[in-house]
Write a structure and sequence with these properties.
alpha/beta; elongated; Nucleotidyltransferase, domain 5; five-stranded mixed sheet; Rossmann fold; 414 residues; 3 domains
Length: 414
């Protein structure tokens, strides 16, 4: 139970919200805070006893109005991060929801000295000092609230200067941003300062530069040339691969291509993505439309199946699907370098071209397809055969799957 100490009671004389004088009959709004640090039965009984005591204690005062009991059960007092009841109490205090808070001891707020002092300072300075100034003597206020006179004067008198500086700073930020946007992001701090001076606003280039940095306003004159060159380089279709078809590990270079095949008067488009290291088909898709979606969906499936590899290069021909903004943005978003075959040079993408030649000679041309489903099933079966059973001359007559398995065993020996 709270110990009986000598307490100086200062009656509330103005509204904590409206700031208007209170009548003598207005009741004082009072809340309490209770906390226990463990979930043991003994502490649980103590917690219930605290809440019951505070409720009765507040209600027995005829000039008090009970607000609530803020509480944290089974929560340590070392810090305030996980104490929702405590944080709600502080927030309501700053909003003026009550006039007085009672608790068993200051250590109920926090055993961490820094947290405790910060909380008490917040409650005293933002809730009590400013509201009671002018109603009682400075000495009485400082003694009742246990603060030094220096703290009191800092809060009451210097607060006005800080508020003025903050207000002026916000006004200047608005003026600076308006001039900057009117110039279409062309002006730096010196030119913005000159425009403001012409408008009768006194300010220094240094102050303007400081506020522009805070708002992240940068003149385009500084980097417009660099950005222009960057855009030009993105638009260039560079051949990064340069017919270097052998890599030292998986997921360094992928190659891709699209071919078509006619089944019963309907053209079907097949997209494949292959890993140059093992010649494995890592993803494929079939569609009736040779669209950008066919390319992007095939890439997304491959990227997911290969666990989002880093430092990847993607090579293809210059088809409109591969050069589309949607696909290039997808590669850029996943930090993939894009490479293109030179115009009129199909051998720059010889690995993907060779796969389609094998697919058609060994499977598609040999079958008279009766339906779309039969065609799709045939392509699926061939891709599986190509990856798991068909020996590849470039891999010393090993299959793509076996070649990758041998690499994994060398890299991660048991």
């Amino acid at each position: 139970m709270p110990s009986k100490n000598n307490v100086t009671i200062i009656p509330a004389s103005i509204s904590m919200i409206a700031g208007a004088p209170l009548s003598q009959s207005t009741k004082r709004r009072v809340a309490a805070y209770a906390r226990v640090s463990t979930d043991s039965s003994e502490q649980e009984n103590s917690f219930e006893a605290q809440c019951e005591y505070y409720t009765k204690y507040i209600n027995k005062h005829p000039d008090w109005e009970f607000v609530t009991v803020y509480s944290d059960e089974g929560i340590t007092g070392c810090n305030t991060k996980k104490r929702e009841g405590f944080k709600s109490m502080v927030a309501d205090a700053l909003l003026g929801m009550f006039d007085l808070i009672i608790t068993k001891s200051v250590s109920r707020f926090a055993r961490n000295t820094v947290d405790s002092l910060q909380t008490i300072r917040t409650l005293k300075e933002h809730v009590a000092l400013e509201k009671l100034h002018g109603q009682h003597s400075v000495r009485a206020l400082c003694e009742a609230l246990d603060v030094s006179r220096g703290t009191f004067y800092n809060h009451i008198f210097r607060r006005k200067d800080v508020a003025y500086r903050d207000k002026r700073r916000e006004e200047m930020r608005a003026h600076i941003k308006a001039v900057f946007e009117d110039s279409r992001q062309r002006y730096g701090a010196n030119k913005v300062c000159a425009v403001l001076t012409d408008r009768g606003i006194r300010v220094t280039p240094k102050y303007v530069a400081e506020l522009m940095r805070e708002m992240d306003l940068n003149s385009v004159n500084k980097d417009s040339k660099r950005e222009h060159k960057k855009k030009l380089s993105l638009n260039k279709k560079q051949n990064v691969l340069q017919r270097k078809f052998n890599t030292i590990a998986p997921n360094i270079v992928w190659v891709s291509d699209v071919t078509c095949f006619k089944v019963k008067e309907q053209y079907f488009y097949i997209c494949v993505i292959m890993d140059l290291f093992s010649r494995r088909v890592v993803s494929h898709a079939i569609s009736k439309n040779n669209s950008t979606y066919l390319i992007t969906s095939t890439f997304r499936k491959a990227f997911k199946n290969r666990e989002c590899p880093q430092n990847l290069t993607f090579h293809s021909d210059r088809g409109v699907q591969y050069t589309s903004n949607a696909f290039r943005k997808l590669l850029c978003m996943n930090k993939v370098v894009q490479s293109f075959s030179n115009s009129g040079k199909p051998h720059d993408n010889a690995v993907a071209e060779a796969f389609f030649a094998s697919l058609k000679k060994e499977e598609l041309y040999r079958t008279n397809y009766k339906s779309e489903s039969q065609f799709r099933e045939s392509v699926e079966d061939y891709v599986l055969f190509y990856n798991t059973e068909r020996p590849h001359r470039t891999l010393a007559y090993r299959t793509p799957d076996r070649f990758e398995q041998e690499y994994d065993r060398k890299k991660n020996p048991a």
